[in-house]
Amino acid sequence: MSWNNCKRFGLFLICLPAALPAAAQSDTLFLPVERLFELGVRHNLALQADALEERSALERERGARAERLPDLQVGLRGGYAGRPTVFRQGLAGAYHPDAPDWSQNYAVDLSQPIYRGGKLRYAVRKAGMERSLAALRTEADAADIRLALLEQYMQLFELYRRQEVFSRNIEESERRLHDIRRMKEEGLITNNDVLRSEMQLTDDRLSLQRTQNDLVLASQHLDILLGLRETLLIRPDTAILHRPIELESYETYVGEAYAGDPDLKRLRMQTELARNDVALARSAIRPDVSLYASNTLARPVARTMEDLYNNNWNVGLSVSVPLFALYKSRYKVRESRLAVALNRNAEEQEMQRLRLRVHTAYLRHREAVQEVKALRLSARQAQENYRIMQNRYMNQLAILTDLLDANSVRLDVELQLTAARTRVVYTYYQLLRACGRL
């Protein structure tokens, strides 16, 4: 086998693994960004846990409301009654009168709370706030998950574009190598240019192999997160890169963020929950008022032990005042007030962080837009520079190093342009996340 044939066989073995993943993943799925968000939210395990938390909070709220209902108890008791012993004089002169051997007792007790110092009302309110907090936590987690999915989705754009650029570059490198070999046969150049061109082609093929492997891995990662078959090769919707984006004023986005950011709304709800705890702590020092009623049917008569049924009933009002709570609960009230101040401070800190996040996303988006405009011009210039250097090399007016450098510059600019286009989309969605729109 000749040296050239050995080199070609080696290049074939190098590029063979790159072709296998693409062949193994022949099934492709076109996935718009809206479908990406829908599947991501539906199959995310963290959101499923948040949904369970919401259901748990709903049950706690129902339990708190049920505490306002009357308490009804029904008791049934029966058993063997031992013979009583009666002493005539002190502990002397004992005798056993006749008494029934079996006893029965049927009781119904009803208690209806009327006033608990606000405990029931504030407990129900607290449970409702906790359910709202769980819903806000789900909303915030869903927005974060959408943004994380979009970041991986944008990575697919870059990988597909990188694959396209490397494939085209390999075709041009093969044509250039063919021309260089012809020029070598004509004696116009040395074998050094042939070897360098072959090495460059090998590097391009290795880069293409790594890009294809990265594409398979990135697609498989999304398949797992979206609940899809892992062998599907996801193809993103390139139309998202060309959608017109109308940027509003910075203050408009800040105002929307203050009103719609789920994290800030959650902190505000926690502040209201702390205020409710203050009222709940105060209610501990107020009296409890309840209405009670009971009915008891018993046999035998407890006082005379006659074998007869005896029925008693009573209705009344129960009032209890927690005297010890008058000084014990004041510390709890102070603690709850400090919790309100602490939550207010957390709100203000979050507003500062939110304003910074909005400003950062706003500037990064504008920066990415300007970068795309600049790189478009650079891409045209790099393409023209490569064309000039190729003509100069073919006419023996430039060396191969200059041509390869021009090709490398063109390749880098094209990849930077793709990355800048994806950043335009991603930074805009970051801005939407900070404003509570995502």
TrEMBL record:
InterPro entries: OMP_efflux, TolC-like. Transmembrane segments: none annotated. Keywords: Cell outer membrane, Coiled coil, Membrane, Signal, Transmembrane, Transmembrane beta strand, Transport. One of its GO terms (molecular function) is efflux transmembrane transporter activity. It is found in: Cell outer membrane. GO terms for cellular component: cell outer membrane; efflux pump complex. Residues 365-392 form a coiled coil. Residues 1-24 form the signal peptide. SUPFAM superfamilies: Outer membrane efflux proteins (OEP). Belongs to the outer membrane factor (OMF) (TC 1.B.17) family. This is Transporter.
